[in-house]
Amino acid sequence: MDITLTDLLERGPITWLLAGDSITSGWGLADYRDSYAGRFTDHLTHSADPVRAQDTVANSGVPGATVWDALCEFEWAVTRHGADVVTVLFGMNDAGWGIDRLDRFATGMAEFVGDVSDLGALVVLQTTYPVGPGGEGTHEALPAYNDAVRQLASRTGCPLVDHERHWATLEVPGAWYLDPYHLTERGHAELATLLTATLLGPAEAVEDSAEG
């Protein structure tokens, strides 16, 4: 890719867009600030350097959305925000369609990355965390969908935030889940910690807020 995150961060304040589904929208939480998106925003405002404190964060997460839904609403989901960096977290809903739709997902993700890049923005790809207790057998294809995201990141050079592999290193309690597919505040804090550490360096403030 022609532009790197380091280049963008060195230019001054930027606009971030978090695109995705109900995970990104913070579905099920009483306070949006407890979502990974809210915590990432809070880190920029209060815990990062003075330049990052001037950054703007937008969120176009839609409950139930797939990457193809976002493509159909691309103007609303992406273009209108004029973002410099677009983080992308799709897969949980897409994988619910099973392994037969994997190629369609991979094609849609590649198209999404291409369309965002055509706007001059940098794409950050994210894998989806594993399904939680009670969801066994419903998203057996999810690891393959996450592999498709990794392969896309490798082909395009997009930064990758690999939540699935990170969670595999942890002993994740069921209490991190609201239901098999959505997270509590503590689960979102873990997403925010990895997102922030991957893009901006160690996220002590995010980790501290996640204690308990």
Overview of the structural elements:
With 212 residues, the chain is an alpha/beta fold. It has a single domain, classed as Rossmann fold. Helix content is 46%, strand content 10%. It is built from 11 helices and 5 strands. It has helices spanning 5-11, 22-25, 36-47, 67-72, 74-77, 92-95, 102-118, 142-156, 163-168, 185-200, 204-209; strands at 15-20, 56-59, 85-89, 122-126, 160-161. It has a 5-stranded parallel beta sheet with strand order 2-1-3-4-5, with helices on both faces. Helix 3 (36-47) packs across helix 10. The termini are far apart. The model is unreliable at 204-212 (pLDDT under 50).
What portion of residues is helical?
A: 40-55%
- What pattern of helices and strands is seen along the backbone? HEHHEHHEHHEHEHHH
CATH class, named: Alpha Beta
Outline the biggest β-sheet: 5 strands, parallel
Shape assignment: globular
Report Rg. Answer: 16 Å
Counting DSSP H or I runs of 4 or more residues, the number of helices is 11
Here the CATH topology equals Rossmann fold
What is the mean pLDDT? Answer: 93
Q: Please count the beta strands (DSSP E, at least 2 residues each).
A: 5
Give the spatial strand order of the biggest sheet.
2-1-3-4-5
Strand composition percent? 5-15%
* Count of spatially separate domains: 1
The secondary-structure class comes to alpha/beta
Quote the distance from N terminus to C terminus. Answer: 40 Å
Look at the structure and name the CATH superfamily: SGNH hydrolase
Gross CATH architecture: 3-Layer(aba) Sandwich
Q: Low-confidence parts lasting 5 or more residues at pLDDT below 50?
A: 204-212
